[in-house]
Amino acid sequence: MSGTLSPTLLFALGLFAALWLLAGLWATLRGIAMQRRAAFAGGQAERLASLVEASPQLPVIVRADWRIEASDRLGRWLGLDRGPRNFDELRGIGSGLDAASHDLLRQAILGAQRGAKPFQLSLKPEGSHRTIIVQGAAAPQAVGGAGSVLLWLSDATEGQQALAHARAERDEALAAFEALSGLIEAAPFPMWFRDTDLQLALVNAAYVRAVEARSATAVIDGGIELCETVAGVSAADAADAARAAGSAQQRTIPVTIEGERRIMRVVDVPLAPEGGRMIGIAGYAIDIQELESERGAHRRFVDTQRELLDRLSAAVAQFGPDQGLAFANLPFRRLFGLDADDVGEARPFARLLDAWRERGRTPEVRDYPEWRQAHVDWFARAEASEEDWRLRDGTHLHVVAQPTPDGGLLLIAEDKTEQVQLAGARDTLLRVRTATFDNLFEAVAVFAPDGRLHLWNQRFRRLWGVDEPTLAAHPRVDVLMGGLADRLAKPNQISVVQEVIRAATLERQQRVGEIRFADGRHFDFASIPLPDGNALLIMLDITASRKMEGALRERNEALEAADKAKTAFLSRMSYELRTPLTSIGGFGEMLQAGYAGKLGDQQRAYVDAIMDSVAVLGRQIDNVLDLAQGEAGTLAIERAPVDVRALLEKALDDTRPFADAEKVELVGNIAADLGTIEGDAPRLSRLVAGLLDNAVRFTAPARKSAGRVLLHADGDKRGIDIIVSDNGPGMPEAAAAVAKGQQAGTDTGGIGLALARQLVAAHGGTMEVVSEAGQGTLVRVSLPRGM
C-alpha cells in the first residue's frame, strides 16, 4: 500500500492539481483584469487631472492639519514661486495673500470645519491685479478625510473687469437716461412715449400743461390725447403709420394748447434697437404758430414790397442764388424790354446781358466777354457795385448791384438821362441865380449851422458897410455883428439879430424882428431855416412904409375923433329934438282931448296926422339915439321876460294900416308856443316894426302886381327865429353890408338894418339878410332864450 497510490488519493491529487490550476488561471485572469482596470483607472485619473488642470476652477483640499493638496496653478495664481504645501505658505513677501485676506480665509475654513458651513470669498493677491473667487465647504470623507475642507478657486479677473465695465456702462447709461429724462421733462414742448399697444406710457410736464391735466399719471390713466382726430386720423393712427413706415412721420395740425388754438408740427418716431423688435413710439409737438404767422407775414411783405416796387420810378430786379431772374418791376421791364417769359422762365443773368446787348441796353465796351464775366461776378461780391451806363440811344443809366444774403442779387437801374441833360444847364442857372441874388431889393445872407457867414449879396454888404475881404473870410455871426453894432440907433439891438440867426440854425425856428439904423432907416428882418441846415437872413427896408404908417395913424386918429364928434352930435341932437317933439305931442294930445274946444272933422284929421308924425319922428329919434349908443358901445339893454307872440302880433297890427295903404298883403305865421325870452321889449318892438316897415316900403312901389310881406316865427328850447320876407326888388347891397357888419345905405334899408343888427347883437343873437335882385329879401333874426 505504501508503494502504490490508491485511486482515491490519485483522484484527490488530481482534483487538487486541477483546482490549483484553476485557481492559478483564475488568479492570472484576475490579475490581468485588475491590471486592465488599473490601467483604465490610471488613464481616467490622468484625464480627470487634465480636465481639472484645464478647468477654470482650481480644486484645493485643506486637511485638518492645514496641509494643502493642490496643483501648481495655485502658486501661479497667488504669485508664489512654487505651489504651497500648507496653509501658511499661502502668504509670501510681496506676493500671495495679504494678512487680512489670509486671516479671513482661515476663519472661513474653520467655520466650514466646525459647522460644515459653506462660504464664498473674493480675494486679491498682493502685487497682482488678479481677482480670485473662493468657494469652500466641508470635503467628503472619501476625498480628504475628517476635518478636511474642499476649496474651489476661480480666476474672476476678466469677469470682474467685464462686470466693472458693465457696471460703469450701466451707470453711464442710467446717468444718460436720467439726464435725458430730465431734459424731456424740462422740454418746453409736449413729448410722449407709446408702448407697443400704442397706449400712452410716458408724458412730460409740457404735455400735462398743454392738456390741462392734474398730473402725468392722470394723463396716462385717462388716455388724454394732445392731438385730436383730424381728417379721420387719430393720434394712435398716426403713431401706427410711423410704426408701419419704420421711420419718423410728421404732420401739421391744429392743436388746443392750454385752451388756445395753435398750429403744431407733430412728429411720431418709432423706437427699435438696431436689428431688434419695436419697443414703442416716441412723439413730440412743436408750436409753429409764430412760424406760420411769420411766414404769412413774410409772404404778405414780399407781395407788398413787389407792389411797392412796381410803383417806383426806379427800375428794380431781383435775381435768386441760381442767378435766375426772380422778379422785375414794371419800370425795369419797360427799360430793358423784358416780357413775361423772361420772368416766368427765371432766365439767367448772363443770358439777359446777352439779350440786352442785342437790344442796345448795355454800354459799348471793347471786350464784351470780359465785361460780361465781370458783371456775372457781382453775385460773388460782398459789397454793392455802382456803375454808369451810357447806351447807344443816348440814355444814361445809373446801375447799382447789391448782393443779397442768400447769394442772389438786387439790381437797381435809374434813368439819369434827364438829370444829365439838366446838369448841362445847371451852370447857367447858377450864374443866373448869382446875378439875381446880387440884384435883389432885399439884403440877403446865408449862415451855416456853425454860425459862419456862407453867402451874401451886394445889398447886404452895402447895407452894413462891410468890405468884401471881411465877408470873404466867412466870419462867425458873433464876430461879424459885434463889429457892426455902431450902425444901429440902439447898438444893443445887435444881440437881437444874433439871437434870430441862432434860432434858425440851431433850433430850426423862424424868427422875425425890426431894427432902426442910426441914419433913421427902418428894416424888417427874418431868419428862415433852410432844408440843408443853413439859415437865411432877409432884411427889408421899410422906411417908406413906416412913414406911411405914421400918416395913416394920424388920419385914423382924426377919423376916430370925427366919429366921436358925430356920435356926440347925434346924441345931443336926439335929446334936443325930443324936447320940442314932446311939447308938440303934448299939445296934440290936449287938442285931441278937447281942451281947446270941440274940433271939427277936418281939424281932428289934422291933429291925428300931427300925432302920427310925432310918433314916427319919436321912433326915428329913438332909433338914432340907439344907433349912436350902439356905435359908442353904451347901448343899455333891459332884461325882462318878453312875450314874443304878443309882441309880434302887436307889430303886425301896428303895420297893417301902412301895408293896406300901400296895397301890400301883410301875412303873419306865428307859432302858438313861442313862449318868452329875456330881453328889452320896447327895443324888440322897434326892431320888428322897423323890419316890417322896410319890407312894406320897399315892396310897394316896385311891384306891378300886389306885393306880399310875410312874418314867420317859431322856436325851440334854445331860442326863437323871426323871419321877415317880401317879394320886392331885393337889396343885395344891404345884405352884403349887414353880412360884413357894416351900415347899409339909406337907399337900401337905411338906419333900420344897421340898428336892427346892433339890437340883435345886444340881445346875444344873430341876424342874416338874404336878398336877390328881382326876387325879394329875407331877414332872419335868431334870439336866444336867455342872455
TrEMBL record:
Reaction equations catalysed: ATP + protein L-histidine = ADP + protein N-phospho-L-histidine
CDD domains referenced in this protein's UniProt entry, alphabetically: HATPase, HisKA
The EC number on file is 2.7.13.3
Q: Where is the signal peptide?
A: none
Question: InterPro entries, alphabetically?
Answer: HATPase_C_sf, HATPase_dom, His_kinase_dom, HisK_dim/P_dom, HisK_dim/P_sf, PAS, PAS-like_dom_sf, Sensor_HK_Regulatory
Q: Which domain of life is it from?
A: Bacteria
Q: Name one Pfam family in it.
A: PAS_7
> Which keywords does this Swiss-Prot/TrEMBL entry list?
Kinase, Phosphoprotein, Transferase, Two-component regulatory system
Q: Enumerate the spans annotated as Histidine kinase domain.
A: 572-787
| Gene Ontology molecular function terms on file | phosphorelay sensor kinase activity
Please give the name of this protein.
histidine kinase
